[in-house]
Batch of 2 targets.
Target 1
Amino acid sequence: MPAAEGIKYDPEGICPETVCDGFRRAETLAKKYMRLLRNYQVFWYILYGLIALSCGIGNVAKQHTLDWFWIVIGAEAMAASLTLLPSLVSTGKKWVCSLAGFTVSLLFLLLVCCVYSGGTWFFTAASSVLLGMGVVFLGPVLNTLTLPDSLKDQKFSLYLCIVLILLYVQLEVICIQTGGRWYWMAFVSILFAAWLLFGALVIRKLPLEAEWKNRKALLYFGGVLLLLLLIYGVYCLQYGRGWFVSAAVWTVFGVSLVILPFLLFKNQISLKPHRALAYLGFETVWLFLGLFWEGATVAGVLTALLSVLLPWGWLGALRYLPIGKWFRTGIAFFWTGLWCWLYPWILDRVYVLCYGWDSDNLSSLIIPVDFSNWQDFATRGNNIFLLFLLAMGLLGAGCMAVGIWKRQKDEEKEK
């Protein structure tokens, strides 16, 4: 096979001359680089050594001891971690090693300064430095490090946990130094805030089993509720309060009032055929448990009972009556008007029965209206109320009429 143009082979066929020249140039450049690197290192060795030697001699000559000399050593270590240490590391993570060296030398410098000045602030300063360095540099460090397979997808969770630990260490140090009693309250409050802000991201990355993968929202809101209750418990224990159970009962009631429909709608809880019944039943039972725990009066319990009759009537009419949807909607409108008409009248009688009210202004089933008078506040309210009741009746009747019409149309189609 003819030789390629521009390439000459030696008689013994060892290698092309151009390839050998390339190897020789690379070897020459490598030797130059190693010589420059060695000279660079020697320069910094000599410079730092001369500074340390001169400061040591000066410290001994003047103070007859080595005290501020160690401050110089700490400062030199910080400078060396940025200038000399990267040249000594052969791996591809030089900046991580330099950052670690800088942090360690900074902590050493703080310790020496604290001892030299006779202070007690070292642990506060050290914990603050570690927290600040962790917040800023921990993320890039985790992205650089080779983590086990089980942690490769959990870098954010790992970052958050380490930062929280550093924050808790700083708070513990400050609490001990100030003689405070607020540590555990701050602990649970910060944990609650972190979960509220980042809990959804943490759960999203968790390797959950199949049955929990579609219930991530339940895990998140469950964590929010538990941590909120934990805050109540810690506060009550720390300050000797006795309202934990009351706060827990009404917090669960309020949170479930807002969140439970979302969880049921997203199939976080397997009650699909009866989700509305489960929601309303849970809220009703929890409401009365809270009232009984608070020692509510008979009037209060009866008022709550009258109030929950409205949504229960809607549920029974719209979901469980075995008739067409237009008839169910019409009955729901009729029930709304009937409940609004009877509620104030029954409520007044309950309070008369329980508290012996004797008033001339008790509600009446006959609504005193005067459509020629819209100036008086009470009369205007009665006029609007009657119009509302008539609207509910007309809407109910209209839905019934549509239901009858559709039924007749369906019967005609069948014939």
Target 2
Amino acid sequence: MFPKPVASTSEAPADPADLYAALDLGTNSCRMLIAQPQGSQFHVVDSFSRSVQLGRGLEKHRSLSRASIDRTIAALKLCRRKLELHKVRHARLVATEACRRATNGAAFLRRIEHETGLKLEIIRPEEEARLAVISCAPLVSRHTTQLLVVDIGGGSTELVWIDLSRVAPLERARAIMRMRGRLSDSPKDTPFPGAKVVDWISIPLGVATLKDQFEDVADEGARFALMSCHFEEMMCDFLPYQTACGGGCGKTDTPPRRDFQIIGTSGTVTTVAATHLGLRRYDRNKVDGLRMTSEQIDAVIRQYLALGPEGRRRDPRIGRDRQALILSGSAILQTLMRIWPTDRLSVADRGLREGLLYAMMSADGVLEDGPI
């Protein structure tokens, strides 16, 4: 079992000087972690998560709606209270695809600062991808020489392929953790010359945007197939995809490789994992680090399609707000698992917030060099 980067709320009050906060305002959710360094990991002191559906209608109108803005600002006011309560001194607050794409994204951030006092920054897709990779470092196997990290968001999906073949097996997770600068930097510009980013891509299709593009297709089976095909078409500029498929769309016949690992981080991946485990209540300790086979993932997706919209709404692991999103997310996930030579997926209940925390703490030198 891999060590977890988070823990339950601390009983003793934390020293504000030791606290770090990371806030991720995405297309669907507003989420925040407040944590303190603990050895080579961190310990969560407080957290926040709320579905704000910021990107609702964005695909059609190209701007954030008044209702979405109001929901988001209400959530951010709660985040501000937590930051004030804990007297957090080190924080990074970021916004992603919805604010990047919206014509009123910059004006929205100015309103946030005016009404909440919080100053958010819109990060570039490359930075979002790098932080997602860093968050998954503890899940990298020492047997892995080729790594694909997949972050399925609400408005976009980031794919990063890393060659670890020149890194010593016991240093591979640490090589990922210490990634600096731009993903497009040459290997000589990184602290670990052997850790090479082969290619990365930010596809402007996430669970919300992909759903919105095909919501007029009535038949769910046909909609699922169209979403899968459309997502695969958008990967054609990704170099590892060209290698796997010979430059054309289709299934690879390459046999599974033990040294190749896919790590998936998103609500889609963790929901599929929870369904596979038959959990009645979500349990992060059982989901994070789980390895699922392609057959297990396909079985869950067939179950989602068989349930239909109403059945998915009643499923407590999915819920009313996410029943349509889980279908588009599953189309992305199944497409990725079909293309590359592995029959397993490592499930990561971690993402941008954890990556932000690791990056801030690592830059400040407050993480120890013990085992990850």
